[in-house]
Design brief:
- The chain is α+β, with helices and mostly antiparallel strands.
- It has one domain: Alpha-ketoglutarate-dependent dioxygenase AlkB-like (Jelly Rolls, Sandwich), CATH 2.60.120.590.
- Helix content is 16%, strand content 32%.
- The longest helix has 14 residues.
- Bound molecules: succinic acid and manganese (II) ion.
């Protein structure tokens, strides 16, 4: 029998830069389905998912719901003071634990999980036209790694440098179920999402009809 050339398997772990690690296909379809269901619930409130307002008067094209802390440009609070004033929902233990497991795999260090206690998660929804400009996650008073989970449509995730939003950068394609960690020397890299591939996700398998969800977990280092 003539063997069929196999599709090259996706690698399980790719170090993009020191401290920046891509874990393709880290989440099972089951886990993705559960996360989609949870995101749908969180999106209802107490602080409903919405487009974040920018100081200049515009709005971001992504929609966001916040767990643990409310983020707006450019600080954290517990309550949505520019919206309905409500306190955001708690970040559930199971989600923090999931972040710890990602970290352990990314850094191939089983002990990394126990010490990782993210206290904020931003859940972003991208419709086919949404983008996210190059920015740093820098309102935190902690240099603990950021853990990101992607579900739904594929996108280009741009991993830049720590100096400015320009080149050099590396473009990584993030697909449904992929995890990404940026910590260590890459904790404060500029990053963004310049492009989404519409209708490219496993929508039926995960229960998300369109678009992309991204969850980023961070440690704020803030008290109260
Ligand atoms: C973010 O930087 O907050 C989100 C990144 C992503 O959507 O992959
Ligand atoms: Mn970010």
């Amino acid at each position: 029998m003539i063997p069929f050339p196999e599709e090259p398997a996706r690698p399980r772990r790719v170090e993009i830069a020191p401290g920046a690690v891509h874990l393709p296909g880290w989440l099972t379809f089951d886990q993705q389905r559960q996360l989609v269901r949870a995101c749908r619930e969180w999106a209802r409130g107490p602080v409903p998912m919405r487009h974040t307002r920018l100081p200049g008067g515009g709005v971001m094209s992504i929609q966001t719901v916040h767990l643990g802390w409310y983020w707006r440009p450019y600080h954290y609070s517990r309550t949505a003071d520019d919206h309905n004033g409500a306190r955001v929902a708690e970040l559930p233990e199971w989600l923090a634990d999931l972040g710890g497991s990602v970290l352990a795999d990314a850094y191939q260090d089983p002990d990394a999980a126990a010490g990782y206690r993210p206290d904020v998660a931003l859940v972003n929804f991208y419709d086919h036209a949404a983008k996210l400009g190059m920015h740093q996650d820098k309102e935190e008073r902690s240099s603990a790694p950021v853990v990101s989970l992607s579900i739904g449509d594929r996108c280009v995730f741009r991993v830049g440098n720590t100096q400015n939003r320009n080149r050099p950068w590396t473009d990584v394609e993030l697909a449904s179920g992929d995890a990404f960690v940026f910590g260590g020397p890459s904790r404060f890299v500029y990053h963004g999402v310049p492009k989404l591939y519409p209708d490219s996700g496993p929508h039926d398998e995960i229960g998300l009809a369109e678009g992309r969800l991204n969850l980023t977990l961070r440690v704020t280092g803030l008290a109260g």
